[in-house]
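User: Sequence in, structure out. Go.
Assistant: Echoing your sequence, followed by the structure tokens.
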Amino acid sequence: MARDAKTSTSSRDRPGEFGGERDGLRIYWNGATARQWDAWIESMPRSVIEQSWAYGEAFVGVTPYLPVHAVVYRGTNPVAIAQILEWRVGGVVRVVKIVRGPLFLEGASESERVTALWLIRSRYSLSRLDLLLWTPELEETDEAHQLLRSMGLRRLITGYSSIWLDLSQDEAALRAGLKQNWRNQLVRSETANLRVRMGHGGASLEWLLTRHEGHRRRKRLRAPASPFVLAISLAQRNKQATLAFTAFSGSEPIAAILVFRHGQSATYYIAWTGPEGRRRHANNLLLWHAVKELKSRGVRWFDLGGVDGLSMPGVSRFKLGMGGALYTLAGTYL
């Protein structure tokens, strides 16, 4: 699959709308198939769920947004891809969201990365009544802020933070990287006579989504709604890309987590645990099972799904306890 992603694409095999040229790069809109997109994602050592084809398709089912797919080429070789969500309001104003894109293929130079951003930017302008909300996959640096300001954008929201866990380490190194308290909780959970079952949908996913939605509504959490989460799962071409892990005490489920795989990466997406699950540290056990399962499937990077010390201090401490590298993006720009 990765080999296919790197294969040159002739102009005859590259349908879609030509969107412009800059510094030797060309951008094409809606010129990729789901199979091509998945192959490009598969070729990247690190990717994000928000740029997966299934994530865009989920918006079609439950929101007024439609996905638009951009591919940037140097000659016949793809350099960058970006999934963009557009909503035409009243046939006049176009509301646009770019979430964690573009992503770059292996070998893209720094100058090509900058040019790709400019090519995407050229599609949208306030004079054409485009309202662009862009959260690029750029880590927070002075250079990133300066680049985005030079494109006429201003930051509205500070950067999203999360943790990348490198699964290329062996299991012993991953376990040694756990914070002491997290590892102690895992040990207690491993000796608590719990059973873990993994599924790719069906009853296990339905059980989790029902409880997640009830918790989200009661707590008024800024978390993805269950219908949208289900839509992502249903849109996956590879049904094993949905991994639901459930912890049982006897025959009673007491906690569950959901992980989405996308290429060589995966994202910890939602979780639910009841009082018994919290008492027995079931989420530690579930995440450790997820780490081992993802490693066995060749997944290289595990994104722990967001940390926010202000609004979710307990959840953030829990995720930080797994070790990994904290990162913060440049923010959302208008």
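User: And one key feature?
Assistant: The CA atoms of residues 148 and 154 lie 7 Å apart.
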